[in-house]
Amino acid sequence: MRKGSHHSLEIRRRMSEARKGRYVSLETRKRISESKKGKKHPLYGKHHSLESRKRMSEAQKGKKRSLETRRRMSEAKKGEKHPLYGKPRSLETRKKISESNKGKHNKGKHLSLETRKRMSEAQKGKKRSLEHRRKLSEALKGERNPNYGKHFSLEHRRKMSKNNARYWKGKHLSLETRRKISEANKIAWRRRKQRDDVK
What we know:
This protein is mostly helical. It has helices spanning about 10-20, 25-35, 50-60, 65-75, 90-100, 115-125, 130-140, 155-170, 175-199. The model has no long low-confidence stretch (mean pLDDT about 85).
């Protein structure tokens, strides 16, 4: 194929059909992966233009991956298989990512009740390990918390209180859960008191 030329949609469709059902062994996939790593990759050192990225984004819109495909994608990047495994991002890097994402996605948007219901159903029954919860807690402590240094208005707090009351209506917490909440509140109160004493 000559440099700069492109396959027509029909040819690409036929090529795709011809490859369907083929199984590529793990060894073959490993060799293909190694052959395109680092400087051997055709896009090494290159960057997609904004126009190119826009076209790629448009091409993916409306596509829905099956649950099986999503599961395989998830498994392919778990633990040591993830490209960032063992490479913690610095606070500076995380700050840059946070700043670049501000206002990009859901600014001014509100999730429909149906969407929120689906998200809620997807999380039901999932149990995070103590280690996972500890990491989540550490990731949101102090200045890393998105609400650090912010103060909610009385109106905002009233809305939050109203939403919480609606959520807990008819629900009953076990004694163990109430004990945990009480302990967590006591710790938070002591920390606030210590900060006030320092000031």
